[in-house]
Amino acid sequence: MLSRILITGLVAGSIAGLAITVLQLATLVPLLHQAELYEASFGANETLSMHDNILQDQNQAGVFGKSLLTLLSNGMTGIGFGLVIAAGMSLLGRTRAWHGLLWGVGGFLAWSLLPAIGVPPALPGMEQAPLLERQSWFLVTALFSSAGLLILVLLRPLWLKPLGLILLAMPHIYGAPVAPAAQSGIPLELSEQFLMASLSTSAAFWLLLGIIASSVFRTLVRNPQADMVCEAS
User: Fold this and answer.
1) pLDDT digits (tens, 9 = 90+) for 54-68
2) What is the pTM of this model?
3) Given CA atoms 197, 198, 202, 208 in this order, what sign does their dihedral have?
4) How would you classify residue 110: left for phi > 0, otherwise alpha for psi between -120 and 50, otherwise beta?
5) Residue 43 CA to chain centroid, in angstroms?
6) Quick check: 47 pLDDT over 80?
């Protein structure tokens, strides 16, 4: 049983991590580069084309290293959450594709969409609340949201359902850290594009992770020889 969880987490997490990296490089990275240009040119006398050339040289020099770090980070994140999903499937015994889809939807809601209500993804150069406050609120919101969704979806007693709603609402009732009011050189359209692209890529990651995890776990259940090979090795 443990080998099924490990294999599922490694395979699903690695594939989802690779896929999200490709999406991020295609959608988010160009927006980040544009934001860097606006940030560099905001309040300066140099022309935008001059900053474009400078930043282009810097980006070309470090693009491989940044891409590799992004891939490793996404892979580790995918494997970690893939192990959690696989463990949940093992405990519940629900491994159909739509079960994996539900796990993906829940992960997206708890770890992306609901925290983004208070702490949305932001481009460089945009005014934000202090980093520690944002990270703390994001983590608390994600954990409370995860617990709340699990109570609402999995627990049988109806009297526990309001507890799930309370957990979902508590971080937002408390309130997210507020960014200082200051002028930014980032256009509103660009920040909105980045927000939508961030949420879209995150949704793709979670849905893909859930579907692949259910497929891999179901295959291992149907082929117990895979467990024997892993345990023997």
Assistant:
1) 445 445 546 677 888
2) 0.85
3) positive
4) alpha
5) 33
6) no
